[in-house]
Amino acid sequence: MKPVLSNDEQNRLNRAVAAAEKKTGCQIVLAVVRRSDAYPEIPWKAFALAASVSGLAVLIREFLSRGWPQPVTPPLALTVVLGAGLVSALFTLLVPSYARLFLGRRRARAEVRQYAESFFLRRELSATAGRRGVLLLVSLFERRVILLPDKGLRSRLTAEESRSVIDGMIPVIRKGDVSGALKTGLDSLTAALLTPPKRRPVRRGRNELPDSVIEEEGA
Prior knowledge:
Blueprint: H1 7-24, E1 27-35, H2 41-64, H3 74-94, H4 96-99, H5 105-122, E2 133-139, E3 144-149, H6 159-174, H7 178-193, E4 214-218
Parallel strand pairs: 1-2, 1-4
Antiparallel strand pairs: 2-3
C-alpha cells in the first residue's frame, strides 16, 4: 500500500502529537484509513441506474424513429443497455468521486463509526492509565472523520466540541490535504481538552500509545 502521508508529513505530525500529549496529559492517536467498507452495492446501483437510463433512451429512440429504414434491433438494444451498465459499474471501481454518488450519508456515517470503534478495540486504545486515550480517524473514501474519546476523557470533551473538531477538518480533507486536516483536527482537539474549566492538573505518565499516524487500507 502506498503511504498516504510522506515521511516529512509523518514526522511533523508525530512531533505535533507528542507536544499535544504533553500539554493535555492525554494519549492521542491519529489514524487514516482508505475506506471503511467495501460497499459491494455501489457497482450494482451504478449498473442499474445506467442500464435503466440507456434502456429508456433506446425506447424513446425506437418510438421516435418508427418508420425509419433502420430500427433498433433487440441485440443492439441489449448491447447498449448492458454496455452502459457495465461501464458505469466499472467507473465506480476506478473513480472514487463517482462511486460516492451512490453512497448514502447514513450508510457512510455508520460504516466509518463502526470501523473506528473496531480500530479502537483492535489497537487496545483503552489500555491506558485513567482511560485517557482518544482516537481521531479519517476515512478517505467517505471523506468522514470520527473522534472517539475513552471514558476517562468524556467529561473533558463535549459533543459540541467534538463536532467542532470534525467540522474544521472536512473542508481540508475535500481539498486532498490529509496532513493539513489531521494537524487542524489535532490543534482543535488540544484546544478543546484545555478549555477552562478543564484546565486542571492531569496525570502525565509514560507514553502508552504510538505518536506516529497509523495508516490502514481498510475494507
